[in-house]
Design a protein that fits this description.
This protein is an alpha/beta fold and 302 residues long. It contains eight helices and ten strands. The strands form three sheets. Strands 2-1-3-4 form a four-stranded mixed β-sheet, sandwiched between helices. Strands 5-10-9-8 form a four-stranded mixed β-sheet, with helices on both faces. It has a two-stranded antiparallel sheet with strand order 6-7. α5 crosses α6 and α7 (245-254) crosses α8 (261-272).
Length: 302
């Protein structure tokens, strides 16, 4: 395998995330029967390297989006960043009823690695994969009949809850490796247990604002952070293996896709067609901070 310098990795990251981002947004728009010009707000998430100009500006150029589209680039937040981007997109949609926001997560984990003799590096290099996913959001116009773009059964984002575990703030991080002249991702082997110890308290806060109980959640879309992470969440929330089937499948098929993982699980749930009107779902992702980010959704008729 040819040695790649940090400069090579930066160029690789830009090439891959732009290519994946264009394709992910294109698929998202096609499925939602939307055009690029319909995007009013573009939220781009990528943590696996650094871009200036950001991914959002590059996608505007590559996809011929409206040059006055509002944009946000979320960087450095890691595997939980889709949830942070989702919160920003939701807030914009609420303030701009009837308009469309698109969230895209594009991660080139193959552009962030080192080779050495440590078990830590071996685990990290075997765990992560490249991938991109996008989702479109809108808020219904008050008083309008239906959603205006397809109607039908759709998930509504109801609430969110998060927690930064400050005692484990350095458990997931990028370090600069002087010997290899590149960034190296550090993942503490204890992090699944740290997340497991805190996850129930976060989830218990999630539905409190909308009057439902934790036990009412039927669909669980959890970040595919690794088998130990999935098991820690499942055991501490008393979930079944069926509850995390999509998370396990994403990890098996693609690896940990960083911020995009939870959206890949959501896609599998949509394709399965098991969600019914009135069902509640929970989205959950974990990342550097150490941080747990969650959101509660409910499927409703437009």
């Amino acid at each position: 395998m040819a040695e790649e310098s940090q400069g090579d990795l930066l160029r690789k990251h830009r090439r891959i995330v732009v290519d994946m981002g264009v394709r992910a947004v294109g698929v998202c728009l096609a499925r939602a029967c939307l055009r690029p010009v319909d995007i009013g707000y573009l939220v781009c998430v990528t943590t696996t390297s650094f871009l200036t100009p950001g991914l959002s500006a590059l996608l505007v150029r590559e996809m011929d989006l409206a040059p006055d589209v509002q944009r946000l680039d979320v960087v450095g937040m890691g595997c939980n960043a889709a949830m942070n981007g989702l919160a920003a997109a939701r807030a914009w949609c609420v303030a701009n009823s009837g308009r469309v926001a698109v969230l895209v997560c594009a991660e080139a984990c193959s552009a962030a690695y080192v080779f050495d003799s440590t078990m830590r590096t071996a685990v990290v290099n075997s765990l992560f994969g490249d991938g991109a996913a996008a989702v479109a959001l809108t808020a219904p116009v008050v008083g309008a009949a239906g959603r205006g773009r397809g109607g039908g059964l759709a998930p509504y984002l109801l609430s969110a809850a998060s927690q930064v575990i400050t005692s484990a703030v350095d458990a997931m991080r990028y370090d600069w490796d002087d010997a290899q002249g590149r960034f190296s991702f550090f993942l503490d082997c204890q992090i699944p247990y740290v997340i497991g110890a805190h996850v129930e308290a976060v989830v218990d806060r999630l539905p409190s604002g909308v009057g439902v109980r934790h036990s009412a959640v039927r669909h669980w879309l959890v970040h595919a952070g690794g088998r130990k992470m999935i098991d820690a969440v499942r055991v501490n929330l008393r979930l079944s293996r069926h509850d995390v089937r999509h998370t396990v499948a994403v990890l098996r098929d693609y690896g940990n896709l960083s911020s995009g993982s939870v959206l890949f699980s959501y896609e599998r749930l949509v394709e399965e067609g098991s969600a019914r009107a009135g069902d509640y779902g929970a989205l959950m992702a974990m990342g550097p901070g150490s941080t747990i980010e969650t959101a509660l959704i409910q499927w409703r008729w437009g």
